[in-house]
Design a protein that fits this description.
It is a single chain. Helix 6 packs antiparallel against helix 7 and helix 11 packs antiparallel against helix 12. Strands 4, 5, 6, 9, 10 and 11 form a six-stranded antiparallel β-sheet that branches. The chain is flat, with a radius of gyration of 32 Å. The chain is α+β, with helices and mostly antiparallel strands. It is built from 13 helices and 15 strands.
Length: about 575
């Protein structure tokens, strides 16, 4: 009967788009030529098509894309950046005004009886902050997180730079990310094999054919050393020769390695890097990304001459961090912030287009004349078209009249419809009008009403930050381990300390009200001075160290209260609190 298949997956919210389902069941070629490539895994085709479609909405090219797919009328569509506004607003609230790297216990390093663990935590926290400043972490986060908010996924790559003696942080487009996921694996499990791949177009001037570049990270058993001092890809012999720093476990019959971050737990796993290119014309039909023939590959070479063919990185993890925009629910990939409002954005663009057309007829109305004698062209003998401009006078005969088509009422209705659709889209995207800046502050009855209106935004930001919390903790853990593997100065060869990234407040705070609250609470004795200082820090006051601020305030208070000629006694620093009572 020709019934269409009802498909439900992570990108089924785009099924209403004709370009997402062509005659052969694959997305339309207009979305991206690479979507039709034979080397792409079947499960990645719809994902890449969704990325391309979302990017078109972000760049005001949705109408252009629809016209390429056969909808000629879509070329006249008006797009005024509503999708980009939703993405940028969500990104700003997600990241907050600031991002801080926190190592638990570091706040007690300046106590009088500070423990060695607190001092070590403060040292690690300082090194991580210095690394973040050198690698422009806030800027990298802006790039990666905007991809995650728009497309649903973001990607970080970590690599050791021996020249700079630090870990380099790069961001990749998630369209290059192809993890090899096991059928029965949990969505939260880390894949053991990951590809970064893309097509390189042909270059006739240089005589280069179209190619595929594939960078592969794979976890596998540690291999023995060969006679040349490298590694051998042959079968492991009975008594393999270990590489420098490795050992052979006779009881388990395998090579193992002790990593600096796990000195008491030898590991038999390492990460291998392969970077190669294939000419597309050399591939047979059906050869997908994960099984490209190695005999036709051209392996890349590192700056020091090392061939990147299963290069041992001497890490027991893959240095890639995939950011998911939403909490995983049976899917490895996330969902775009625009997923639930795509149809509203389409209708908003169509209504904007109708409004623009009605505006043209309102500003330059259609006029009908009766009883006027038009000027005749002497060459053709035909009447010349009438031109209406300020100061034009028409001589009308008996019974003549002029009628003007008034479309101002339709224009007002269309403008009201635009605002209605925009409000509906904002509600469904959980972006209140106050967060989009479309509400006059004088229209808000009270601060409590404003706080209630921000409730949907609070839940949205909390869910998005929860989906990222363990990913950024993992990234900071990898940064410490790669520095240890590179034997960077100042990084101890010991187990790494847990670190997390803390986002700043996502809504504006009334600083004067918080200051008044702190003053009243501390004066009345219901708030500790240190607690009040931390409240001021959270409100955005420029206080670097809460404990030092407490000491300065106490010293000034004692000086002002001392008798004339009496020398004030310096106060002791605040005593450390137990971990259970320390602030999160």
């Amino acid at each position: 009967m020709g019934l269409r298949t009802f498909l439900t997956d992570a990108w089924s919210w785009l099924n209403y788009k004709p370009v997402m389902s062509g005659s052969d069941g694959r997305p339309h070629r207009a979305l991206a030529p690479a979507v039709q490539a034979t080397w792409l895994p079947d499960e990645a085709v719809r994902r890449l098509a969704a990325y391309k479609l979302l990017a078109a909405y972000d760049n005001n090219q949705a109408g252009e894309l629809a016209s390429l797919a056969g909808n000629d009328a879509a070329g006249e569509r008006r797009e005024f950046g509503d999708a980009s506004t939703f993405v940028d607003t969500t990104l700003a609230h997600l990241l907050g005004k600031s991002q801080q790297i926190i190592v638990p216990g570091a706040e007690h390093a300046k106590d009088e009886d500070a423990t060695s663990e607190a001092i070590a935590a403060a040292a690690v926290q300082q090194r991580l902050k210095e690394w973040a400043e050198a690698e422009l972490l806030p800027l990298r986060m802006q790039a990666a997180e905007r991809k995650a908010v728009l497309l649903g996924d973001g990607l970080y790559l970590l690599a050791w730079d021996p020249d700079k003696q630090r870990v380099r942080l790069k961001t990749y487009d998630p369209g290059f990310y192809f993890p090899v996921l096991e059928d029965d694996a949990d969505p939260g499990d880390y894949p053991r094999r990951v590809h970064l791949a893309w097509e390189i177009p042909e270059d006739p001037k240089r005589g280069l054919k179209a190619r595929i570049r594939r960078i592969t990270y794979e976890l596998g058993p540690i291999r023995p050393a060969d006679e040349s001092g490298g590694t051998s890809s042959s079968e492991v012999p009975t008594a393999p020769v270990p590489q420098a720093g490795d050992s052979y476990d006779d009881a388990l019959g395998r090579l193992q390695r002790t990593y600096p971050w796990a000195p008491d737990r030898p590991s038999a796993t390492t990460c291998y890097l392969t970077d190669a290119e294939w000419v597309i014309s050399d591939l047979r039909h059906g050869q997908e990304l994960d099984d490209l023939p190695l005999d036709k590959a051209r392996f890349r070479t590192r700056a020091d001459g090392v061939v990147l063919d299963r290069l041992d990185l001497r890490l027991d993890f893959i240095p890639l961090v995939h950011i998911s925009n939403t909490i995983a629910d049976g899917e490895h990939f996330g969902q775009s912030t625009l997923a639930k409002v795509m149809q509203a954005l389409d209708e908003l663009a169509e209504t904007d287009t109708d409004s623009a057309r009605a505006s043209s007829t309102t500003g330059a109305p259609i006029i009908g004349l009766a009883g006027a004698r038009p000027e005749v062209d002497r060459v053709s003998g035909r009447p010349k078209p009438l031109t209406i401009e300020p100061g034009t006078v028409f001589a009308l005969g008996d019974g003549g009249r002029m009628d003007v088509l008034d479309t101002s009422h339709q224009l007002a209705e269309l403008r009201a419809r635009v605002e209605e659709i925009r409000d509906r889209a904002a509600v469904n995207a959980r972006l209140p009008a106050v967060s989009l800046g479309t509400v006059d502050p004088s229209d808000v009855p009270s601060g409590y009403a404003l706080q209630l209106s921000l409730g949907p935004l609070d839940s949205l930001v909390d869910a998005m930050r929860l989906a990222r919390a363990h990913k950024y903790a993992l990234l900071l853990k990898m940064v410490q381990r790669i520095h240890q593997a590179g034997r960077a100065d100042g990084w101890p060869q010991s187990p790494v300390l847990p670190a997390r990234l803390v986002f700043g407040p996502h809504t504006p705070t009334d600083r004067s009200a918080i200051l008044e609250e702190v003053v009243k609470g501390v004066t009345a004795g219901v708030l500790a001075l240190e607690t009040g200082i931390r409240m001021l820090q959270d409100a955005g006051y420029p206080i670097d160290d809460a404990r030092e601020e407490v000491v300065r305030i106490t010293e000034r208070r004692m000086i002002s209260e001392a008798e004339p000629g009496e020398k004030p006694v310096s106060p002791a620093p605040p005593r450390p609190r137990s971990p259970a009572s320390s602030p999160s």
